[in-house]
């Protein structure tokens, strides 16, 4: 049963899944756009939106939570500095998922997730 399951399991143990989502979130914030599978894109979308919401808050506690989640310390500082200009008037919906062609090897549904 899936009662109260927020993130799909992605075929990985909990520690590997957490590390995968952290690395995907870090890369998405760094590059602004990444190509991954549709299930991973949907899973990382909520994590990235949570980090941007923390950056909009801007408090010291929010900065420390973001530093504990994202892998790059300098990236957190640039995110907190630039988020008000980019997302100041927007209430949520900071990412967009675009479906692309299936992957050639295993026909997995691929998607591009990008920051708006």
Question: Could you walk me through the main structural features you see in this protein, from its secondary elements to its overall organization?
Answer:
- The chain has a single domain (14-115), classed as Alpha-Beta Complex (50s Ribosomal Protein L17, Chain: A).
- A three-stranded antiparallel sheet has the order 1-3-2, covered by helices on one side.
- Helix 2 crosses helix 4 (73-87).
- The protein is an alpha+beta fold and 116 residues long.
- The longest helix is centred in the middle third of the chain and has 20 residues, at 38-57.
- The N and C termini lie far apart (34 Å).
- It has four helices and three strands; from the N terminus they run H-E-H-H-H-E-E.
- The radius of gyration is 15 Å and the shape is globular.
- It has helices at 14-31, 38-57, 60-69, 73-87, and strands spanning 33-37, 95-99, 110-115.
Structural features:
4 helices, 3 strands, 50s Ribosomal Protein L17, Chain: A, 116 residues, globular, three-stranded antiparallel beta sheet, alpha+beta, 54% helix
Q: Briefly, what is this?
A:
The chain is α+β, with helices and mostly antiparallel strands.
């Amino acid at each position: 049963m899936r009662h109260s399951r927020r993130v799909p399991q992605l075929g990985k143990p909990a520690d590997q899944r957490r590390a995968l989502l952290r690395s995907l979130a870090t890369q998405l914030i760094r590059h602004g756009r990444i190509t991954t599978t549709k299930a991973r894109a949907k899973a990382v979308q909520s994590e990235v939106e949570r980090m941007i919401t923390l950056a909009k808050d801007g408090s010291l506690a929010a900065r420390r939570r973001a530093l504990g989640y994202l892998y790059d310390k300098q990236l957190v500082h640039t995110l907190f500095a630039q988020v008000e200009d980019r997302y100041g008037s927007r209430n949520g919906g900071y990412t967009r998922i675009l479906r692309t062609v299936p992957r050639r090897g295993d026909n997995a549904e691929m998607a591009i997730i990008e920051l708006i």
